[in-house]
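Our working data are protein records whose layout never changes between entries. An example says more than a description, so a record of this kind follows.
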Amino acid sequence: MEDGVYLANSDGQKHELKISGDYLTWSVYAESPAKFIKTLGGFYTVDGEKLFVNLEFNSDYALDGVKEVSHPVRFSMNQIIINEKLTFQKADDKTQELDGLWLFATRGPDTGQERRGDENPRKTLKFLLDGRFQWIAYNTDSFEFHGTGGGAYTSKDGIYTENIEYFSRDNSRVGATLEFNYELKGNDWHHTGKNSKGEPMYEIWAKR
């Protein structure tokens, strides 16, 4: 499947697929009234007309216990058709400096402290692609799901801005705009500013 963001609508719900390399996330939410519905993601393969995903997270895991999914899939011009009923249309390419998969590493500043890496089961992932962002907090051992949020973003001239379109912990946060400073140092993204409570924040994210 071609890298990018793919969007579909079904029964008043928005479906968003983000695909990069062998990784994808699939999120579902409603806009009016704002409501988070579900998200899942992990490493995928396509065999013929079958999509297989070995999940890293599943927001419904406590209910369904699902760690792997498979769906019939086929491809058309800039489209991905799943289960013969969901047609995802590829969004426009909007390449930006922070595009990619990022794992939370540590609180800044960088003074040689211990970092949380891919080997740690407790993960917070940020997936930024073509003007869309999502963060997900989860545990790959216990499959506990701790939360997610996403929407549109821009990163330019050291300013990173998020416009929240879904938020699993609090639907009332939808519509908020958050602005931060960013700096790239090697494979690290230094993310600074104020959190949602107005408190100073300094996070370091590492390119996955």
Notes: The chain has two domains: 4-90, 100-207. The first strand starts at residue 4 and ends at 10. The mean pLDDT is 96.
